[in-house]
Amino acid sequence: MLDLLRFGSDGWGDEIARGAGMTLAVAILAYLIGILAGSGVAAAKLSGPAPVRWLAAAYTTIVRGVPALLVIWLLFFGGSGLIGWVAGLFGYAGPVELSSFAVGVTAVGIVSAAYAAEVIRGAVRAVPKGQLEAARALGMGRFLILRRILVPQALRYALPGLGNVWQMTLKDTTLVSVVSLAELMRQAYLGMQSTRQPFLFYVTAAILYMIMTTCSEALFRALSRRAERGVRRAMTN
Amino acid sequence: MNIDMILSSLPALFAGAWVTVQLVVLSLSLGFLLALAVAFGRLSSNRVISGVTGVYVFLFRSTPLLVQIFLIYYGLGQFAGIRESFLWPVLREAYWCAIIALTLNTAAYTGEIMRGGIQAVPFGQIEAARALGMSRALLYRRIVLPQALRTILPAYGNEMIQMVQATSLASAITLIELTGAARTIASRSFQPVEMFIIAGAIYLAMNFVIAQGVRWAERKTTAAG
Asked: ∠ CA(A141), CA(A145), CA(A149), 5° rounding?
């Protein structure tokens, strides 16, 4: 039975491996969108003018309250229409077709950003005000304060939460298989259909996901330790 | 925008929402009971019991829910032994497979939340109960569990809201719940976006009910003063 997972033309090993690579590509891109857009949304929630603050609050509340699968379907059915409309404003009238990769990365990124925004907002608020006041008293500029004082400290508070957001983003990529993107779940499905060995293919997929989540958890733990290297602890365990 | 079309699709959406509610309520209640067993298993001084429950929690938290659903729905049917067993009438149905997967998944997460809550009960409370001569069962029923459940309320509220969203994955195994209903209508009507917006609003309404319920429970269980 296991020879079905051989690499090459008579086995599914290489297809599954390519699927796992695609899963990682979607997850990493969506996570980057999540961190960047999430930082913007967190900034909007912390110090934007009232209407921007409301928009940001509506965004995080709605996206965190509906299933990620719904966001994927919405983008899949409505995304090309929206982009076509925007393109029309610039005088482009041709048909617009979104690839399932673009839909998947954007949808998972939108969800990731909503959760990341909440984590980042909490972390920024956890930085003591005195730190920022002291920096200002020393005559530091806004950007220097951000780079030297706020981000290094907020990052330490944010890391555990951002680690959770990564795990969630990685698992959400499985949903992109519904729009036929050839990631791990989709390849396992195709393998199951042509060989009638669903258990073998889904257990293989499960093991690969387990490896990904376990390794990335270890990576985030190492990052946390590094970010905390200058912090004294009352209790060590 | 075609109002008639939207109105005519509402019954199908509400029928889907009703399936979603069933999935949420059934898997949350079964999952809560299983989670209690998992929490006690993890805290057990018996190495075998705590080891087995630890492996269970690890397996279900480190893999995506969709894989778990597919493994149960497609994977188990591969074995003739299961197809011929008395379990087959249940495992053949997408509905029950979804409930089994959701239950096992939420029990793993909730079990860890509960373990934290039980461990957070101050040891003095347990010593005092023992000094009063309470039996183990009474000690858990009157002292440990009420305090642990109050501690975990906010975290468990989040888990409940996550579960509402998780039920949407049942649409991947042909179950027409809320997301599945919206998608089915969207693919044959010219109002796909409107369908998903209505479905999203129904999900938000469900979350709102849960959040209010949790807030009410928190008020009820906060010790006065």
From this structure: 160
Task: Please tell me what DSSP assigns to residue B75.
Answer: I
Comparing CA positions, the residue from B58, B111, B158, B161 lying closest to residue A161 is: B158
Pick the CATH number of A2-227 from 1.10.3720.10, 2.40.160.20, 2.60.40.10, 3.40.50.1980: 1.10.3720.10
Residue A48, min C-alpha distance to chain B (Å): 25
**Chain B residues contacting A, CB < 8 Å?**
59, 62-68, 70-71, 74-79, 161, 164-169, 171-172, 179, 182-183, 186-187, 192-193, 196-197, 199-200, 203-204, 207
Structural domain of residue B69, as residue ranges?
A: 3-221
Place of tokens 């999900």: B203
Domain map (residue ranges) of chain A: 2-227
Q: How confident is the model at residue B52 (pLDDT cuts 50, 70, 90)?
A: very high
Query: Which residues of chain B are within 8 Å of residue A178 when distances are taken between CB atoms?
Result: 172
Residues of chain A with pLDDT under 50: none
Q: Which residues of B touch A69 (CB under 8 A)?
A: 168-169, 171, 179
pLDDT at A235: 64
| Shortest Cα–Cα distance, B40 to chain A (Å) | 23
Q: Is the pLDDT of residue B190 over 90?
A: no
Domain count, chain B: 1
CB contact at 8 A, B203 and B164: yes
CATH number of the structural domain spanning residue B201: 1.10.3720.10
In this complex, do B74 and A177 lie within 8 Å of one another by their Cβ atoms? no
Complex confidence, ipTM: 0.90
Identify the CA nearest to A68 among candidates A171, A160, A209. Answer: A171
